[in-house]
């Protein structure tokens, strides 16, 4: 299969597509995550997260993080506490789309490049994000912790490569954590460390820089920077 000739010095066989982590790459969700986890802990009468728990929670699935924070004897209470947090009012409004993300995916789509998501969020969690920001239907497939082993497992990235009929070295994984790096390496993908938290084959602090690295030129102004009025 013939893939777009994007950054041929990096992808000599063409770039089949770009895979995105969600939190820390597509969206800035640190304040939202803090509100969610501290809300659950407050419902259970537990103290708020410390720095180490907050760092772990940003990379793990929600249940992995909560099981680490909540005493084992009370794990059976977690889902009831989660359901008592008003996610739509207390958490979603704190999420922001990462600057430059929308014009970056538009530029890739216009160049004929496929796009996908590999996230440790659940199906419900990632759909909330896509719907909240009215993001275009560019992402196929969308892999979550509901349908593949969570990162650092490469299972999600490997599912994406199979869906695209692409081989190792023909896809780019954009992530901001060690879990993303390990997932990309396990699947044989080129890895772009994003946001200054982890280095990769490419390392970019933001999307305008990554666009220039891939030869996409300068990005126009962001098409979407806030949630749509219908979603709020």
Task: Please render the helix and strand layout as text.
Blueprint: E1 17-20, E2 27-28, H1 30-43, H2 51-59, H3 62-69, H4 78-83, H5 87-90, E3 96-97, H6 101-110, E4 114-118, H7 123-132, E5 139-143, H8 155-164, E6 171-175, H9 178-187, E7 190-194, E8 202-204, H10 207-213
Parallel strand pairs: 1-4, 1-6, 4-5, 6-7, 7-8
Antiparallel strand pairs: 2-3
Helix pairs in contact: 2-3, 8-9
Textual characterization of the structure:
By secondary structure, the chain is an alpha/beta fold. It contains 10 helices and 8 strands. A 6-stranded parallel β-sheet has the order 5-4-1-6-7-8, sandwiched between helices. A two-stranded antiparallel ribbon has the order 2-3. The model is unreliable at 222-232 (pLDDT under 50).
Beta-sheet strand percentage?
A: 5-15%
What oligomeric state do the depicted chains represent? Answer: single chain
Helical amount? 25-40%
Read across the widest sheet, the strand sequence of neighbours is: 5-4-1-6-7-8
On the 0 to 100 scale, the average pLDDT is 93
User: Which term fits the overall shape?
Assistant: elongated
Helix/strand-derived category reads alpha/beta
Major sheet, described briefly? Answer: 6 strands, parallel
Number of helices: 10
List unreliable stretches of 5+ residues: 222-232
Rg estimate, integer Å: 18 Å
Count of individual beta strands = 8
Distance between the termini: 41 Å
Order of helices and strands: EEHHHHHEHEHEHEHEEH
């Amino acid at each position: 299969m013939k893939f777009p000739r994007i950054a041929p010095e990096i992808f000599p066989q063409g770039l089949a597509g770009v895979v995105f982590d969600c939190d820390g790459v597509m969206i800035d969700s640190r304040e939202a995550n803090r509100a969610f986890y501290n809300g659950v802990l407050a419902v259970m009468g537990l103290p708020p997260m410390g720095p180490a728990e907050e760092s772990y929670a940003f990379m793990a699935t929600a249940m992995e993080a909560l099981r680490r924070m909540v005493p084992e004897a009370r794990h059976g209470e977690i889902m009831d506490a989660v359901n008592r947090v008003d996610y739509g009012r207390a958490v979603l409004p704190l999420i922001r789309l990462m600057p430059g993300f929308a014009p970056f995916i538009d530029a890739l789509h216009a160049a004929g490049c496929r796009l996908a998501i590999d996230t440790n969020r659940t199906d419900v969690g990632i759909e909330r994000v896509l719907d909240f920001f009215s993001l275009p239907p560019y992402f196929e497939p969308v892999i979550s912790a509901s349908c593949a082993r969570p990162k650092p497992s490469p299972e999600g990235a490997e599912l994406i490569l199979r869906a695209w009929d692409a081989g190792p070295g023909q896809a780019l994984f954009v992530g901001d954590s060690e879990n993303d790096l390990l997932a990309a390496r396990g699947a044989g993908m080129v890895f772009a460390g994003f946001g200054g938290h982890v280095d990769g084959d490419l390392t970019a602090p933001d999307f305008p820089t990554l666009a220039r690295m891939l030869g996409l030129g300068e990005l126009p102004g962001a098409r979407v920077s806030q949630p749509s009025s219908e979603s709020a």
